[in-house]
Design brief:
The complex is a heterodimer. In chain A, 75% of the residues lie in helices and 2% in strands. By secondary structure, chain A is mainly α. Chain A is globular and about 85 Å long. In chain B, helix 2 packs across helix 12 (251-278). The longest helix of chain B is centred in the first third of the chain and has 37 residues, at 72-108. In chain B, 44% of the residues are buried.
Chain lengths: 321, 286
């Protein structure tokens, strides 16, 4: 088990390194940030001066080595636009994204798996057909459209829920939370719902399909014929086996979730990391984009490793391969 | 299989919708009153016109116009063209490449397999959406072709993972052994025996992927990193409509949004039927 974890960690490290290298190479060809910064009336000497002050006149490998060395110490350079450290800029917005994404995942998982079980037990009942039709709508609506339709319905026409920003927030140490006031929570409802909806529908359909397969297995028939209570058969025998792939896929969807949080944050003007990334892309703010990519890579890879290890714990077959 | 298709109402319904959209996209110039991206046909005189049945609506703009005076109905039809070009383009390119890589790595195994699958796993966990977004965000918008390429970069791994699994399953089947024993070369074995027999799950992936890519293109264009401003796109229409959301001009969002949902629902209905049809483990309606 120890070697397995070590192997996965080293692989993860290699991926992060590859990501950093790709980032770096890409940015060499991405246009000149100096020209954007100095404005159109700068003289040649002024341009060179800025270039030198940012260290952009050195050879690529020196720049990459420096970047890597600094990155290890948590220093990703300063934003070209706001002139403050990029990592600080992103970390400051991390709590907003974290709260949004966590709430969305919890909503998607609980409601998705719960409804999936209910629907699988009586697949042809009228009510369950209706739920399935809704879930089809859920996987057929891109997140941005769900968000906009929610704003139209709840903010513009009914006027009961706020459509942008985080509302009131409370500073707890380094963490700025919106969960401690009613106003903050009301601001969270629409963005979290639109972020959760697609995942919810996917999990529902996955659970349903898994349950339908498992319910035909012999060991379930045995459990029924032993006269066990339906609760025990469904949750202890059937659902446990279905949950293994469902949990794995939830873990693997992390990248997707980060991508869709960019979309959701843009629509709801949520002051999170995704919103910052989109602005930085429009402004060609390299250090912020690179820091975001590195951070996203780190989060995704860590999530993957955790899922892999959990999976190996549950399923001994994997460990010995 | 044909029988089950003909008795499945939602499968027929889904494919009729998809077919209707494909036809509409092909016939676009003949069934729309204006080409919304032909500057000569569009006039600012009719900007922000509501749908024809509302007060202020004028013919021929049945669903109204946007802030540039483009007919919403025509833009939707032309936008579907973009959606379908991107969707089928990606499925064709990423699908062929992914199937090929899956076939080779499943059959030969070894180093090739290890490297391909490591790349595939990494790309898969970063997700097509995130990679395509970053790629387009960094390289900027150019044309529909760049959008297709950006999506393909990550999308092929879905096909190769599935194909590899499917090849591994049948690789040691008796008929493959028989073909090998009777002296088939590698190329013949791969293309004539393995490929056709391992293809079934790929069809399901194609159907599901088509829906996912059409939504992805709309999302990218909505964010402003997708197709350029000079091309029609359903996602971009919604992005424009978003600016007028508080002015009560709902038609700029609701009509393109509905078209997008209908197209994707149609594909997904068909995909659902295909998935259940090709999965022997699920008990069909008795």
């Amino acid at each position: 088990m120890g070697t397995y974890i070590a192997k996965r960690l080293i692989q993860g490290l290699l991926v992060v390194l590859a990501a950093s290298m790709i980032c770096f190479v890409i940015f060499q060809y991405m246009g000149d940030p100096v020209l954007n910064m100095v404005g159109q009336y700068a003289t040649f000497e002024e341009i060179e001066e800025v270039r030198e002050s940012l260290g952009l006149n050195q050879p690529v490998y020196v720049q990459y080595g420096k970047f890597l060395w600094n990155a290890l110490q948590g220093n990703f350079g300063k934003s070209y636009v706001t002139r403050v450290p990029a990592l600080g800029l992103i970390l400051e917005r991390f709590p907003a994204t974290f709260e949004l994404v966590t709430l969305a995942v919890i909503m998607a998982f609980c409601i998705g798996v719960g409804l999936g079980v209910i629907v699988a037990l009586k697949p042809y009942a009228m009510r369950n057909r209706f739920i399935m039709a809704l879930s089809l709508g859920g996987i057929s609506m891109p997140t941005f459209l769900i968000g906009i339709l929610l704003i139209m319905l709840f903010s513009v026409y009914l006027g009961i829920l706020p459509a942008f920003g985080r509302g009131e927030t409370v500073q707890l140490g380094f963490w700025r939370t919106g969960l401690l006031s009613l106003n903050g929570i009301s601001h969270l409802i629409l963005p979290a719902t639109s972020l959760a909806m697609y995942q919810l529908a996917v999990l529902l359909r996955l659970t349903r399909a898994g349950m339908r397969e498992v319910m035909t297995e012999d060991y379930i028939k045995t459990a029924w014929s032993k006269g066990l209570a339906p609760k025990v058969v469904i949750f202890k025998h059937a659902l446990r086996n279905v949950l293994i792939p469902v949990v794995t896929i939830t873990g693997l969807q992390f990248g997707e979730l980060i991508a869709f949080s960019i979309v959701t944050e843009t629509i709801f003007q949520w002051p999170g990391m995704g919103n910052l990334l989109l602005t930085s892309i429009y402004e060609t703010d390299q250090p912020v984009i690179v820091t975001y990519i590195m951070l996203a890579a780190l989060i995704i890879i860590m999530a993957n490793i955790v899922v892999d290890i959990l999976y190996a714990v549950i399923n001994p077959k994997i460990r010995y391969e | 299989m044909l029988y089950s298709y003909l008795t499945d109402v939602s499968a027929i319904f889904g494919s009729v919708i998809l077919l209707a959209f494909v036809l509409a996209a092909l016939l676009a110039p003949w069934i729309t009153p204006q080409n919304p991206y032909d500057l000569e046909a569009v006039s600012l005189e009719h900007f922000l016109t509501p749908p024809i049945w509302m007060e202020g609506g004028t013919a021929p703009f049945i669903f109204g116009t946007d802030d540039q005076g483009r007919c919403i109905y025509s833009t939707i039809i032309y936008g579907c063209r973009t959606s379908l070009i991107v969707g089928f383009g990606v499925v064709l390119i990423a699908g062929s490449f992914g199937v090929l890589m899956g076939l080779l790595s499943g059959y030969y195994g070894g180093k090739l397999d290890a490297i391909t699958m490591r790349i595939a796993d990494t790309f898969y966990s970063f997700s097509t959406t995130l990679l395509a977004f970053l790629f387009l965000g960094i390289f900027g918008k150019g044309s529909i072709l760049i959008v297709i390429i950006a999506i393909c970069i990550a999308d092929w791994v879905k096909y190769s993972r599935t194909m590899r699994g499917s090849v591994l399953e049948i690789k040691n089947a008796a008929y493959i052994m028989a073909a090998k024993a009777s002296g088939s070369g590698d190329v013949r074995l791969l293309l004539r025996h393995l490929l056709p027999n391992a293809m079934a799950p790929i069809f399901v992936i194609i159907a599901v992927d088509l829906a996912v890519i059409i939504m992805l293109e709309a999302t990218l264009s909505f964010l402003g990193v997708g197709v350029p401003l000079t091309e029609p796109s359903l996602g971009m229409m919604v992005a424009i409509g978003k600016n007028y959301i508080y002015a009560g001009m709902w038609w700029m969002i609701v009509f393109p949004g509905t078209a997008l949902i209908m197209l994707v629902v149609g594909i997904n209905l068909f995909a659902d039927w295909l998935r259940e049809e090709l999965n022997p483990k699920i008990e069909r309606k008795a």
